[in-house]
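REQUEST FORM: STRUCTURE PREDICTION
Request ID: SP-0412
Submitted by: Lab K.M.
Chain count: 1
Length (residues): 157
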Amino acid sequence: MTSAKSITRSSPSSVQATAISSSLLSVQTPGCGFTDLTSEAAKFIAEVHARDGALTLFIRHTSASLTIQENADPSVLVDLTTALSRLAPEDAGWTHDTEGPDDMPAHIKTMLTGASLQVPVLNGRLALGTWQAIYLIEHRKRPHRREVVLQFVGSNQ
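STATUS: Completed
RESULT:
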């Protein structure tokens, strides 16, 4: 059990939500892999003059997903791709293969990783950790145009 002395918390802060701002981000993927959306999310937060609140990202697809992962070592993304392929291999005898053998595995990978994220915004900045980045994960082999809804709810400057 963790000792109470090893846990600290800052004082709570409160803001009245005075802004809801939305934008649609269009992303052309090269095929299977990770696309870093962090800078686009940060630009959106700056454009809407966000101060404190939450940024929600929602992908409008069932064969691509969103995640927050390490941004320092590219081998992490390679290993994550390998892990997802092992969890949902193309040759598992899936019934649903309307758009090809990577169709059903893509849906499973999306279910495992998720269609939305929420990132706190503090003092006008995404409250991501030092080594965290926001990624779109393309689960299909061929390139696709993906849409991600960005929505900030909170106070602005």
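NOTES: Strands lie at 19-28, 33-36, 50-59, 64-70, 116-122, 125-126, 132-138, 145-156.
Reviewed by: T.R.
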